[in-house]
Amino acid sequence: xxxxxxxxxxxxxxxxxxxxxxxxxxxxxxxxxxxxxxxxxxxxxxxxxxxxxxxxxxxxxxxxxxxxxxxxxxxxxxxxxxxxxxxxxxxxxxx
Length: 95
Prior knowledge:
16% strand
Protein backbone atom coordinates (compact mmCIF):
# COMPACT_ATOMS: atom_id res chain seq x y z
CA UNK A 1 0.00 0.00 0.00
CA UNK A 2 2.82 2.42 0.90
CA UNK A 3 4.74 1.62 -2.27
CA UNK A 4 1.59 2.00 -4.36
CA UNK A 5 0.89 5.39 -2.76
CA UNK A 6 4.42 6.52 -3.50
CA UNK A 7 4.25 5.27 -7.08
CA UNK A 8 1.04 7.21 -7.74
CA UNK A 9 2.00 10.33 -5.78
CA UNK A 10 5.76 10.60 -6.02
CA UNK A 11 7.06 8.84 -9.12
CA UNK A 12 7.23 11.37 -11.95
CA UNK A 13 8.00 11.67 -15.62
CA UNK A 14 8.91 15.23 -16.56
CA UNK A 15 7.28 16.33 -13.33
CA UNK A 16 3.92 14.66 -13.91
CA UNK A 17 2.58 11.38 -12.53
CA UNK A 18 4.34 8.41 -14.09
CA UNK A 19 1.17 6.31 -14.09
CA UNK A 20 -0.91 7.25 -17.16
CA UNK A 21 -4.27 6.71 -15.43
CA UNK A 22 -3.21 8.88 -12.48
CA UNK A 23 -1.92 11.51 -14.87
CA UNK A 24 -5.25 11.55 -16.76
CA UNK A 25 -7.34 12.03 -13.63
CA UNK A 26 -4.99 14.58 -12.05
CA UNK A 27 -4.91 16.65 -15.25
CA UNK A 28 -8.70 16.74 -15.09
CA UNK A 29 -8.70 18.06 -11.52
CA UNK A 30 -9.32 15.00 -9.39
CA UNK A 31 -7.97 14.20 -5.94
CA UNK A 32 -5.93 11.02 -5.45
CA UNK A 33 -8.48 9.83 -2.92
CA UNK A 34 -8.08 6.25 -1.76
CA UNK A 35 -6.07 3.09 -2.33
CA UNK A 36 -8.03 -0.12 -1.83
CA UNK A 37 -6.19 -3.30 -0.88
CA UNK A 38 -7.53 -6.23 -2.95
CA UNK A 39 -10.06 -3.94 -4.63
CA UNK A 40 -9.71 -5.85 -7.91
CA UNK A 41 -9.24 -9.58 -7.37
CA UNK A 42 -9.89 -10.51 -10.99
CA UNK A 43 -7.00 -12.28 -12.73
CA UNK A 44 -6.31 -9.12 -14.72
CA UNK A 45 -6.42 -6.95 -11.56
CA UNK A 46 -4.02 -9.24 -9.73
CA UNK A 47 -1.65 -9.30 -12.69
CA UNK A 48 -1.77 -5.57 -13.45
CA UNK A 49 -1.81 -4.06 -9.96
CA UNK A 50 -1.46 -6.85 -7.39
CA UNK A 51 -5.18 -6.46 -6.77
CA UNK A 52 -4.99 -2.83 -5.69
CA UNK A 53 -7.56 -0.35 -6.90
CA UNK A 54 -7.37 3.43 -6.73
CA UNK A 55 -10.21 5.90 -6.37
CA UNK A 56 -9.95 9.40 -7.79
CA UNK A 57 -12.51 11.83 -6.44
CA UNK A 58 -13.79 14.88 -8.25
CA UNK A 59 -15.02 17.81 -6.18
CA UNK A 60 -16.73 19.81 -8.92
CA UNK A 61 -16.07 23.19 -7.30
CA UNK A 62 -12.34 22.38 -7.04
CA UNK A 63 -11.61 20.62 -10.34
CA UNK A 64 -10.46 23.76 -12.16
CA UNK A 65 -8.08 24.84 -9.38
CA UNK A 66 -6.77 21.28 -8.84
CA UNK A 67 -6.14 20.93 -12.57
CA UNK A 68 -4.34 24.28 -12.70
CA UNK A 69 -2.13 23.33 -9.73
CA UNK A 70 -1.21 20.02 -11.33
CA UNK A 71 -0.58 21.39 -14.80
CA UNK A 72 1.15 24.57 -13.62
CA UNK A 73 3.21 23.53 -10.63
CA UNK A 74 2.93 19.72 -10.96
CA UNK A 75 1.36 19.48 -7.50
CA UNK A 76 -0.63 16.30 -6.81
CA UNK A 77 -3.68 16.83 -4.61
CA UNK A 78 -4.17 13.77 -2.39
CA UNK A 79 -6.30 12.74 0.55
CA UNK A 80 -5.02 12.33 4.08
CA UNK A 81 -5.12 8.51 3.65
CA UNK A 82 -2.82 8.65 0.63
CA UNK A 83 -0.52 11.26 2.19
CA UNK A 84 -0.18 9.13 5.33
CA UNK A 85 0.85 6.14 3.22
CA UNK A 86 3.34 8.32 1.30
CA UNK A 87 4.81 9.54 4.60
CA UNK A 88 5.14 6.00 5.92
CA UNK A 89 6.88 4.97 2.69
CA UNK A 90 9.31 7.88 2.91
CA UNK A 91 10.16 7.08 6.54
CA UNK A 92 10.91 3.42 5.82
CA UNK A 93 12.38 3.71 2.31
CA UNK A 94 16.02 3.80 1.40
CA UNK A 95 15.30 5.61 -1.88
